[in-house]
Design goal:
The protein is of the alpha+beta class and 106 residues long. It is built from six helices and two strands. The protein has one domain (2-103): Arc Repressor Mutant, subunit A (Orthogonal Bundle). It has helices at 2-8, 23-31, 34-46, 55-61, 67-71, 73-79, and strands spanning 83-91, 97-103. The chain has a two-stranded antiparallel ribbon with strand order 1-2. Helix 3 packs across helix 6. The chain starts with a helix and ends with a strand.
Length: 106
């Protein structure tokens, strides 16, 4: 399974920063293991099956990880077609609607 993750997950560090970001942002982007994080987030979303899940549910599965380490993976997974935004919204802990994400088979 790890070999599969290495082939399909992960984002080049240069895609994780904007051209006008400071050098500290570039250093951080190079330090992030996006392969591992994208795989973790995909697998978490996949566990919810057809009902999908909201960000609060994924964050609860990884309390030791910073919010931004988890939520930053959604864009890459959406762009790669591994997850979809169902268009549904559910109320999160904040009382605001959060998009419902669903994993596609890869």
């Amino acid at each position: 399974m790890h070999d599969l993750f290495n082939r399909i997950f992960g984002t080049e560090p240069k895609k994780l920063v904007r051209t006008d970001d400071p050098d500290t942002s570039r250093a951080s982007a190079n330090a992030v293991d996006s392969t591992k994080l994208e795989g973790m987030v995909y697998e978490a979303i996949k566990k919810f099956g057809d009902q999908g899940c909201i960000s609060d549910q994924i964050l609860a599965m990884y309390p030791a990880y910073p919010y931004s380490s988890i939520t930053a993976r959604y864009r890459a997974l959406l762009d790669k077609g591994f997850i979809v935004d169902t268009g549904e919204r559910r109320k999160g802990q904040s009382g605001r609607g959060q998009r419902v994400l669903k994993a596609l088979e890869i």
